[in-house]
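Hi V.,

Quick status before I head out on leave. The structure for the redesign project is tokenized and pasted below; the design run finished overnight.
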């Protein structure tokens, strides 16, 4: 009789242990899941902030191209400086032109913009096949990405640069003969989830 009671107590203790382990597992899973989601949310927020700056930089660069076209026409002189500058900006072949980025239903063009150097636009092979940006001043080591400021995003694979997840495209749509819509889009993927940020602005000719 005593041996039977001892066996029952041992079995009961084993069940208690298993229940306690199960409760402990569930208790730990909740905070671990919450911490994991918080890390993902923080990384996503950081990437979104970077993407917003890159997209806005694209708009500012194109606006500077329009202004440079006007300054070049002003220094050259002529009867209608504003019209000449606007024509060079839309249809010219120089670094101050967006002709390669003008998109439509028949020709969905897109360009990349290099912020290092002359800030020129390069047409992508296809609107959805632009190359990602590189980040300068960084290396990929055993402990992950290590960066030393200053850091810049560029389309060129410069020494000491690493490939970033960000792809920036610039597209221009003619609204009227004197107005063009510029769309700067930055896209990236994190944890197999695609994200994108788009900034747009309307530019007009100088009058």
């Amino acid at each position: 009789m005593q041996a039977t009671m001892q066996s029952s107590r041992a079995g009961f203790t084993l069940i208690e242990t298993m229940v306690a382990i199960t409760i402990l597992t569930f208790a730990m899973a909740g905070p671990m899941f919450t911490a994991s989601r918080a890390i993902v949310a923080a990384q996503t927020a950081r990437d979104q902030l970077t993407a917003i700056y890159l997209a806005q930089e694209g708009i500012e660069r194109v606006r500077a191209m329009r202004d440079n076209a006007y300054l070049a026409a002003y220094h050259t002189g002529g009867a209608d400086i504003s019209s000449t500058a606007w024509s060079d900006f839309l249809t010219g072949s120089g670094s101050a032109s967006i002709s390669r980025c003008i998109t439509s239903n028949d020709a969905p063009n897109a360009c990349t913009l290099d912020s290092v150097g002359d800030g020129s636009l390069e047409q992508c092979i296809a609107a959805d096949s632009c190359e990602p940006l590189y980040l300068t001043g960084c290396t990929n080591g055993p402990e992950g990405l290590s960066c030393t400021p200053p850091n810049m995003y560029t389309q060129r694979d410069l020494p000491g640069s690493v490939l970033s997840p960000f792809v920036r495209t610039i597209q221009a749509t003619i609204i009227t003969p004197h107005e063009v819509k510029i769309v700067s889009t930055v896209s990236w993927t994190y944890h197999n989830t695609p994200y994108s940020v788009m900034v747009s602005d309307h530019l007009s000719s100088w009058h």
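Above is the designed sequence. The CA atoms of residues 111 and 121 lie 6 Å apart.

G. will cover questions while I'm gone.

Best,
W.
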